[in-house]
Amino acid sequence: MSFSSECKEELSRLPVGDKSCCRMAELAALFMAAGSLNLLGRGLMSVQFTVESAAIVKRVFILLQKEMDLTPQVHSVTHARFGGSKKWVLTLGPKQSPALLTAFSMMEIDAHGQPYLRGTYPRIALSRVCCMRAFLRGAMLAAGTVSNPDKGYRLELVTTEEIFRLPLGKCLQRFELPVQSSRRKEADILYFTQGEQVATFLTLIGAHQAVMKLEDARIKKQVLGGVNRAMNCDAANLEKQMNASDQQLDRIAQLISSDQFSALPLTLQEIAKARIHAPDASLAELGEMLSTPIGKSGVNHRMRRLMQYADIKKEATTIKKE
Predict the structure, then answer these.
(1) What are the contacts of 260-266 at 24+ separation with CB within 8 A?
(2) How many Å apart are CA 239 and CA 144, to the nearest integer?
(3) Distance separating alpha carbons of residues 76 and 87, to the nearest angstrom
(4) Sign of CA pseudo-dihedral 246, 249, 255, 256
(5) What would the pLDDT profile of 103-142 be if each residue is shown by its tens digit?
(6) Is residue 165 within 8 Å of 159, Cβ to Cβ?
(7) Which of 172, 166, 164, 180 is nearest to 204 (CA)?
(8) What is the 3-state secondary structure (H, E, C) of the chain?
């Protein structure tokens, strides 16, 4: 099961809650993203929700039962053209649909007691924070995807109608989530690509287990990033150390070949011999090899004097040849 599916399974298992306003907000988002209104003629109509999993169907079923005591029909459809993928369809027939449509302010009763359709999309108030969170949860269940945090951070909400995109954007703005948008085929995609933003969104809608997995992945990436930086730093330091060692050995060889080595102070002769015997050793390790051990700074000081002495001798030899 993908991380996105696991996240939706978790959301589907959340308690429905006792607030009617929140149940209606979640149902409204589910209808806007995955619902359809079917006109059957003679004023009759049905409502369908088409979703990707049985868990989401169960969620919609429970919301409808608890809010309006409706008992929809459920069946699955397998699409052979798309690799045998299965969709789940929840249907409210002509007798039950008016109750939901009226609750959504999509249907009203005229002066003659006959129902008539006012609109094709729900009209709900999203003024409370709890309702906005419920609306975002419904949007995620019906139109959202989130990538595996081990591979990257991206959460998408797909909208095909402006009437759904506007309240969705309003809710995201209320929670100060700087969402980005793009166009894909005939749909507008609202998305986040920052791990912190994805975690904030999932926390708002109640997907706490998904947030824990995401945070674990973020911590692992930070640790691995630190290890890689340390390794790169060590490699750079080692290369720098080897280059310095090569330069030191080159200067020492020049002093020996020009018979100037014996004229060096004994402390410089000792550090030069230590370097010859241990070309890969660090300055601290060289200091431990001396008859009277000294620290890294002391070794560094002697090496600088040795290099300066070799440069002076080299310059003097060049001038003499000229």
Answers:
(1) 260/313, 264/306, 264/309
(2) 49
(3) 6
(4) negative
(5) 999 988 777 777 788 888 898 888 899 999 999 999 999 9
(6) yes
(7) 172
(8) CCHHHHHHHHHHCCCCCCCHHHHHHHHHHHHHHHEEEEEEECCEEEEEEEECCHHHHHHHHHHHHHHHCCCCEEEEEEEHHHCCEEEEEEEECCCCHHHHHHHCCCEEECCCCCEEECCCCCCCCCCCHHHHHHHHHHHHHHHEEECCCCCCCCEEEEECCHHHHHHHHHHHHHCCCCCEEEEECCEEEEEECCHHHHHHHHHHHCCHHHHHHHHHHHHHHHHHHHHHHHHHHHHHHHHHHHHHHHHHHHHHHHHHHCCCHHHCCHHHHHHHHHHHHCCCCCHHHHHHHCCCCCCHHHHHHHHHHHHHHHHHHHHHHHHHHC
Six token digits for residue 262: 């014996």
User: At residue 145, what is the residue type?
Assistant: T
Are the CB atoms for 252 and 244 separated by under 8 Å? no
For residue 192 the two structure tokens come to 């986040």
* Per-residue pLDDT, 114: 74
Average pLDDT, the chain: 85
**30, 60 Cβ separation under 8 angstroms:** yes
Neighbours of 64 (CB within 10 A): 24
Q: Which two tokens stand for residue 266?
A: 């004994």
Sign of CA dihedral 210, 212, 214, 216: negative
Encoding tokens for residue 55? 């868990």
